[in-house]
Write a structure and sequence with these properties.
Layout (H helix, E strand, L loop, with lengths): L40 E2 H14 L4 H4 L31 H10 L4 E2 L1 H6 L2 H4 L4 H6 L2 E2 L3 E4 L4 E4 L2 H14 L5 E5 L5 H14 L13 H11 L8 H4 L4 E5 L3 H4 L1 H12 L3 E5 L5 H4 L1 E2 L4 H6 L8 E3 L6 H17 L7 H7 E2 L1 H10 L2 H8 L3 H13 L3 E5 L1 H4 L4 H14 L9 E4 L6 H6 L8 H10 L13 H10 L4 E5 L3 H4 L3 H9 L3 E6 L12 E6 L17 E4 L4 E5 L13 H12 L7 H6 L1 H11 L10 H5 L5 E2 L16 E2 L9 H8 L10 E6 L4 E2 L2 E2 L15 E4 L1 H6 L7 E6 L8 E10 L6 E5 L24 E7 L2
Parallel strand pairs: 1-9, 2-3, 6-14, 7-8, 7-12, 8-10, 11-20, 12-13, 14-15, 15-16, 21-27, 24-26
Antiparallel strand pairs: 4-5, 4-16, 17-18, 18-19, 21-28, 22-23, 25-26, 25-28
Helix pairs in contact: 1-3, 7-27, 8-27, 9-21, 15-18, 15-19, 15-21, 23-29, 24-26
Bound molecules: ligand MGD (2 copies) and molybdenum atom.
Amino acid sequence: MNSPVDKPESSDAVAPHHGVKDAPAGGQGALTAQGVYDAPAGGRGAVKAAFDAFQQQGIPLKVVRSFLKANKPNGFDCPGCAFPDRPGSFGPDSCEQGQKAIAWEMTPKRADAAFFAQHTLTELRRWRDRDIEAAGRLTEPLRYNAETDRFEPLPWPEALRLAATELRLLEPTRVAFYASGRASNEAAFLWQLLARAYGSANLPDSSNLCHEPSGVALKAQIGVGKGTAQLSDFEVADCILVIGQNPATNHPRFMGTLHAASKRGATVLALNPLVERGFVNFADPKSIREMLTDRGHQVAKRVIPVAVGGDQAALLAVMKQWLEWEEAGRVVFDHAFIREHTEGLEAVLAHLRNHQWADLEAASGLSRTALTELADELASARATLVTWCMGLTHHEHAVATIQTLVNLQLLRGMIGRPGTGVVPVRGHSNVQGDRTMGCTYAVPDRWLDNQEAALPGLRLTRARGLDAVGVAQGLLNGSVRALLSLGGNFGVAGADAPRVLAGISASDFTLHIATKPNRTHLHPGRTGLLLPCLARTDLDRAPDGRVQVVSVEDSMSMVHASRGMQEPLSPDMLGEPALVAQLGHALLHDGSIPWREWAADYARLRDVIEQCQTGVFDGFEHFNLKLSHDGGFWLPNPAAHRQWRTPTGRAQLTPQALRVNGVRERACARLPASEHARVLLLMTVRSHDQFNTTVYGQDDRYRNVFGTREVVFLSPAELQRLGLHAGQKVDIEGLPIDDGRTRWLRGFELRALDMAAGCAAAYFPEATPLVPLGLVAEGARTPAAKALPVRLHPVA
Ligand SMILES: Nc1nc2c(c(=O)[nH]1)N[C@H]1C(S)=C(S)[C@@H](COP(=O)(O)OP(=O)(O)OC[C@H]3O[C@@H](n4cnc5c(=O)[nH]c(N)nc54)[C@H](O)[C@@H]3O)O[C@H]1N2
Ligand SMILES: Nc1nc2c(c(=O)[nH]1)N[C@H]1C(S)=C(S)[C@@H](COP(=O)(O)OP(=O)(O)OC[C@H]3O[C@@H](n4cnc5c(=O)[nH]c(N)nc54)[C@H](O)[C@@H]3O)O[C@H]1N2
Ligand SMILES: [Mo]
């Protein structure tokens, strides 16, 4: 028996890497004498940081030419974000962040049997997340040995046999198959087929933790849960509203698009509690002049410092203002569009009339003047595009906010013509494709029928499975007995990390398919397997030596091929589709599924995927042929053509009540009134040196943080109001809300940052122990990790 819990479960959840510090490193040529990074976002600093990343991994510069291939025809899809490629662009169409992801993946370092022979899991669990992953690539199958407390190598056939044996002993409905959004379409298709043919529909995915509310909101209103615009729309929009998103760090290629838009005179507006540097000062690494001068450009005309969770109020205020103007004779709405394409107008207007300006101002944290200015800016635009990311989805009222946003676009006919649209900017490079491949806990019957028709003899479970929160809860209460994962870091990426990790350790079986070790892997179940796979940059060869190609779908529904280029570090690293197929063959070989033929030739698998997509997602006809086209092909989005696949065939204007941060009220209800003013809403955000739970370094240069991640940001005014000062150490008390549990992070350092009142920010994943498992977006169950009620206590 392995110890189910590292640390006794207590209210004192402290980040395991607590207190360790790195020296500042990388990308900070522009530090002033006061240690302030005052260069623009992007620019020379970005180029330097990218090269540093390769150097730190010990990757020779000649390999760096490889990134010239990222996001190019015949190359690999960048393993970073899901922002689309610039077709026909010259030079590397990858960014600092993409290059960090590539360098991190192409590293020659190995977390092999020799590495694991040196370190027990008990020891490794004390390492920081960064150091665990920095050990290098997994190169051989490993099994946990509880007696030695180590991962030890075993041959592939044994690993597969063991997995099959364990799974046969378990009740399928108690087994979960998690997928992170990096898997290719082919691997994702096989993953969901494996799970459902085995009898489990428990297919949680990283989307559950990410853009689930966007999909839910869009599907209900416009009939499709995906964004409606393409990259070309950004070239003709005259207004781009970016909400709850930090593209300079998380989608730098989008920054280039915004930069170009603002240079040609389009208005870029950012709605964000944090004045992110990219919006106010950004130099495009592709602009020779800006690189020579290292001078940036103000990309956003305005950063509107909305209160955390106050976006819906701000959007309602805009529409209320529009309505008042309409009633006074200024035409703002697109009446023809509303008549022809939508329903629900009257109810929406009735709600708008009822909202009180004072309530909207208070909830949005914005003055009437700021709200009116925003309303005017949007009312004057001819073509408005709206994009958003986690600042909208990680809230209890995320779905309501996004639906309010869709209402706003519908009122002015801003969906389905050039330069307009609603665009949830996805996170992982293939998170959208994984969903298209049915890798989720609930799918249309047609999808299942098609698979059974394509594969005679096959029977798939028809159940609706558990989502990510459901699986985490199941691991805590013991009803979920096994966790299998295709990438990701389930125990750390979800809520309540320390408790969920303990739940994973207490399970019967864990199997992780991964490129690098991470904290979740260090919590094996009674039987624990860790299986190495190839990454995007690696050459994936079929048994006959041919190079295999996989496919991915970006955030704007372009499907294209990805072909690795680096010789794998070890022959024991398998392509993800081949690995999942081998697992399928070991577990289910009744002949209905030609697992091994597919493993040997992904093109044959794509022919079946094409068949299965009939009547599910349009655009997969001649899949293999279209994949060979440069740049791939677009999956048509009916809403982009003003076809609404809703039950009535019309786009839905849905009335929205004003939603305030209920979580703050619930936390305050347990405190004396005198304490209410001390309650802040903490958002967990990404630094510039990480990809989700993969932490590349300890710097966040745009926010002037070097050598640490254990910081809490507050506005200078809030610091003063609370009698605190920058540099001071505090304990963060995550206030009990629904489960009565207090959560703590100890010894974080206060930092001042230009941001809205009433909120604080700390980094994900360090702050994940503060996220209560039950605190989720209504209707989508995404952890509400951007509004955690906290109090700060100075450390003596
Ligand atoms: N380099 C790099 N690229 C990435 C990732 C990465 O970690 N590193 N992660 C990928 C993934 S999976 C995703 S989902 C995306 C994430 O991309 P983002 O959503 O940009 O990432 P976050 O850091 O979570 O940033 C959230 C932003 O929302 C703002 N915000 C927080 N609360 C609110 C609010 O209530 N209202 C508004 N209007 N804004 C708010 C924060 O100030 C911050 O600017 O990036 C993807 N790309
Ligand atoms: N508090 C808080 N929590 C959050 C968020 C937040 O903003 N705040 N953001 C949420 C969001 S938006 C997301 S998307 C999730 C992310 O959640 P996950 O997707 O579960 O986490 P990642 O950190 O992206 O996973 C990294 C691991 O994936 C593995 N990996 C990397 N590349 C590959 C590959 O090509 N193949 C395979 N098989 N494995 C690979 C490596 O082992 C690496 O350690 O986290 C969520 N959690
Ligand atoms: Mo994400």
